[in-house]
Design goal:
Helices cover 45% and strands 20% of the residues. It has eleven helices and eleven strands. The protein has helices at 21-35, 51-82, 136-149, 254-259, 265-299, 306-324, 337-359, 366-377, 384-392, 395-417, 427-437, and strands at 4-9, 12-19, 91-94, 105-112, 126-131, 152-155, 167-176, 179-192, 214-220, 234-248, 419-424. The strands form three sheets. Strands 6, 7, 8, 9 and 10 form a five-stranded antiparallel beta sheet that branches. A four-stranded antiparallel beta sheet has the order 1-2-4-3. Strands 5-11 form a two-stranded parallel ribbon. The radius of gyration is 34 Å and the shape is extended.
């Protein structure tokens, strides 16, 4: 079948082609003849229903099927002949809008081609492999974080007012419409202000109280609260303040280590040093990948399908907008120049990664996927098996994990081909680079 070229600009293509009515009618007739022997109709013996009557009854539906089949075949042959790979689902339109049965079918097909990814000698790419060793301050900061995560509380002097991070010991009883509700009371309850362990707004109202104060705290249960009987309802809590204590950092000794299930301070220090090293290695990897992306973006020169860039830019703008706007607006987010620039970078590098994966026959094994599923399931303690059952029956959820996993495999393979130059960096300089990245 002949395709007439209408547009050939960069990656954009548009062609027109015609499905002959005679060919379509022939297809319909052949289908009816094939099915006639098995058709039985009142007034006719089985297999003896006239073709003309069958065509009158079923011809329209069969013609529609013949048109679809002929179009699919023509398009498939066209792509094979031209060697084009569409970047998205081709747009096929009917040209002769007044078409009726018996007319030729005039169609147009419009699409963008996937670009040809140029060969690139990755060995010429030189990247800095940053090596960062923990210094005294970074280890001290890590130990301080451990201390802060397990504070001891010291009772304040008489007249001390509570502040954020203080621990308040209180009795409380909750009421809705003047009536106490189930599980709405507590005695000698230790509450750390600012821990967000109570209903939103509760802890804020206890800032500034003193020992022996009585306080009425008014709150509204969230609409998505676990107990549906309380969801969205206003409540009052009568609170009696019994003690106020301020956090004090515990001593750095064996007792601190034992709080974390370790035998000694030495073991805690060793664990922290390993943890800091792991964090630095992870950060170094992130910076190395950023370098790779930057250099590939600079070195790779090829046309990008506008459709892919537009889709990615809209996704970026939508993500940015969702982080900023309130839920009561349906305005379509505007794509900024920065959004488009980021989209072009992602599409360019993403297409290169995809081609690299194909050329090097990289794919995810079943073992790698199952390991990723198992790892992800650990984010849902107590529901691991339910999660695994869900993801193994949900292709879309699998793809959400497959994409980043495949990218990481491609990056690992690329990094084996580039030239890595070890570069030692101080902790201060390293943190400066990480802050710029964020």
């Amino acid at each position: 079948m002949k395709f007439k070229e209408i547009i050939n600009e960069k990656l954009k293509r548009k062609y027109e082609f015609t499905l002959k009515a005679s060919d379509l009618n022939k297809e319909v007739d052949q289908q009816l003849e094939k099915e006639q022997p098995s058709i039985q109709m009142k007034g006719f013996r089985k297999g003896k229903v006239p073709i003309s009557l069958l065509k009158k009854m079923h011809g329209e539906a069969l013609l529609s099927e013949a048109m679809k089949s002929a179009t699919d075949t023509a398009v498939k042959d066209h792509f094979e002949k031209k060697g084009d790979k569409p970047a998205y689902e081709p747009k096929i339109d009917l040209i002769n809008k007044e078409w009726k049965s018996g007319d030729d079918v005039e169609l147009s097909i419009e699409y963008e081609c996937m670009p040809e990814i140029p060969k690139f000698d990755l060995s010429k790419l030189v990247l800095d492999n940053l090596v960062v060793e923990p210094d005294k301050k970074s280890l001290e900061d890590a130990m301080k974080s451990v201390q802060e995560s397990s504070p001891e509380y010291q009772t304040g002097k008489k007249g001390t007012k509570s502040k954020k991070k203080d621990q308040v010991i209180l009795d409380f009883e909750g009421f809705i419409d003047g009536k106490p509700f189930e599980n709405g009371s507590g005695k000698d309850f230790p509450l750390v202000l600012g821990s967000n362990s109570f209903i939103p707004g509760f802890e804020d109202q206890l800032v500034g109280v003193q020992k022996n104060d009585e306080k009425i705290v008014k709150v509204t249960f969230p609409k998505n609260y676990g107990n549906q009987e309380l969801s969205g309802k206003d409540a009052e809590f009568k609170c009696k303040i019994k003690e106020i204590s301020s956090p004090v950092l515990p001593k750095v000794d064996d007792e601190l280590a034992k709080k974390f299930g370790l035998e000694s301070l030495k073991q805690l220090q060793e664990n922290l040093e390993k943890q800091v090293k792991d964090e630095f290695e992870h950060g170094s990897r992130v910076l190395l990948k950023k370098q790779l992306m930057d250099k590939l973006e600079k070195e790779l020169k090829f046309e990008l399908p506008e459709s892919l860039v537009t889709t990615e830019a809209n996704s970026i703008a939508m993500h940015q907008d969702n982080n900023k706007k309130s839920d009561n607006t349906d305005e379509t987010p505007k794509v900024s120049k920065e959004d488009k620039k980021i989209a072009e970078r992602r599409v360019r590098v993403g297409l290169f990664f995809a081609e690299f994966g194909v050329q090097n026959k990289l794919d995810l094994t079943e073992t790698e996927l199952n390991a990723a599923f198992e790892n992800e399931s650990r984010r849902y303690p107590g529901q691991e098996q339910e999660y695994l059952k869900f993801i193994k029956s949900n292709p879309q959820a699998q793809q959400a994990l497959r994409g980043p996993l495949f990218e990481e495999k491609v990056v690992n393979s690329i990094l084996e081909a580039v030239t890595l130059k070890e570069k030692k960096l101080s902790v201060v300089k390293f943190k400066e680079q990480m802050e710029k990245l964020n």
